[in-house]
Every structure is written in C-alpha cells, then in structure tokens.
Amino acid sequence: MFKRLLHSDDCAIEITFEARTIRARAGDTVAAALLAAGEIVLRETGTPGDDRGPYCMIGNCFECRVEIDGRPNQQACMQRVRDGMRVRRQRGPRAAESDYAT
Predict the structure, then answer these.
(1) Considering only 24-28, 35-39, 91-95, which range has the smallest mean pLDDT?
(2) DSSP-assigned letter for residue 95
(3) Are the beta carbons of 73 and 90 closer than 8 angstroms?
C-alpha cells in the first residue's frame, strides 16, 4: 500500500516496534516509518475490530497515538524517528490527561 520513493538503502536509522526492527530514514516521522514497513495498526481501542492507525498525518486526529520510549499518548505523525527509539502499540483507552503534562 505505502511505498518509499527512495531505496531502502537510504534507511540508516533503526527503531523497534513491538520487538521488530524497523529501518527508517533520517527525517521520517514515526508514523511514516511504520507505514513504510507495513504496519498500519498503531493503536488498539479495546473494542474488537475498532483498531486505529495514522489517518491525517498532520496531528489533528490523534488516531496514531503510540507509546514511545515508555511514554504513552505520543502522536506518531508528529514525532521524528531517532536511532534506537522503542515504539509500542498503544492498547486500550487513553490514559488520564495528566500524562500529557510530562
């Protein structure tokens, strides 16, 4: 479905998503890197068949929330990849509003 315009040889950054190593390009957002790697479900809502993934890719819809390096509710479309970044699928309803303050 999604395809990189440049060769995968240009991918020098490695992140981990659900124990899988994903190669990304410098400047990629987490959402773009995951979509290019074939990952389309980034968040589980807790309701069967109602999983979510990147939608708007500009930070308006909050459908691409993931856990990044242990911090929940991070918008994958607004975070740039960093080498060694650990990304996990967010499961269940979002945490309390106080999580946004940190």
Answers:
(1) 91-95
(2) -
(3) yes
